[in-house]
Amino acid sequence: MKRIETSAYHPLYFLSALGAGGLTVTFFLYFLFLVPHPGTPLVTADNLLALWAQGPDWLRPLLLLGVIGLLAMAALHLRLLAWNLAHYRRWRRSESFERLRADNKDVALMALPLTLTMSINVLFVVGSVTVPGLWDYAEYLFPGVLAVLLALGVWALRLYGGYLARLVMTGAFDFVGNANLGQMMPIFAFAMIAVAFAAPGAMSEHQVVNAVGLFFALFFLSLSALLGLVKLVVGVQAMLRHGISASAAPSLWILIPILTLSGITLVRMIMGLQHAFDLETPRPALFVLTSVILSLEILFGLLGYVVMRRLGYFRDYVAGDLQSPGAYSLICPGVAFFVFGWFWIMFGLVGNGLVTPLTPAFFVLLLPLMFVQWKSLETLLRLNRKLLGKASAGCCAQT
What we know:
The chain is mostly helical. It is built from 13 helices and no strands. The chain has helices spanning 14-34, 45-54, 59-91, 95-102, 111-130, 138-170, 185-203, 207-242, 255-277, 283-311, 313-318, 331-349, 360-388. The protein starts with 13 loop residues before the first helix and ends in an 11-residue tail after the last helix.
């Protein structure tokens, strides 16, 4: 990756690191749902080492492939994060930053807390599968994780609060320029913070830690739902009146990761309430919950694909010569669909005895998810070569 000119930088480049972080999690899910891990809510390095030593010989190359894929994506995430932070620091002192604020498009700055929250997830899964015995110290780590997440949450609230207050006072919202769902970026960020808070809320053995994690998960999930409803109505109304531009078309897919994060937050909250507050949840409820969310993701996925295909987005911005950092927003929807597809299979189907793991029916359901994972990885690497492989002299098209 080479340095690009300061005037050509845009905060949406952080979505490259976000996509790589999401792909890190996709490799982790194979271990989480297919490797036995009795006694711990997450698969650990000890579980993988035990399977390596006691499992069949043909399984070892698959374990090695999964670990290599996970570590490669984690390394790419950290590299892209460092690249973005360095460029962002220079860009923030430039005239381009002031122009972004003057045009009321600084909502894109929410990509920073969004990506940094993903970094916590990446470090957590990497530590889980590479550091033997780490889970023995998990309870000591959870309070620190909650503190970092709270700091990120406060930062995100301040960023969005300043942006929203300025719009309310000036009435300067551009309905024509925002005839898309790009304004859903803050909702995406708040949903990411919510799902991160829900992790210690679901996994800790101490009720106080559970309660703190679940409370802030509820806080940011509620905020995400409220703002999401408002922004969805405003965005759809603007699109129906003015139409959506080709460069902004990927924003139609932003609801997929928001739905995935919201669904995982709800599942984690149910798990946390079950073991910390003795909540009894019927298994069919998880089938209904995961099925509804997956159905909505398929609906918005098909709608976005049809619109982008007719506008020539894939031809021009992915395979063609047009450049836009907003193209990186294609990665997270694929990652999100893959992740929630696993949750639907494991909690909705396997959990209700409808499908048995490692059977032909199980792998038939898994194949479409693996295809989406591969296409997401392929698209990320292609965009990296196109947008970051050489210096760009001019500004890219931006959503």
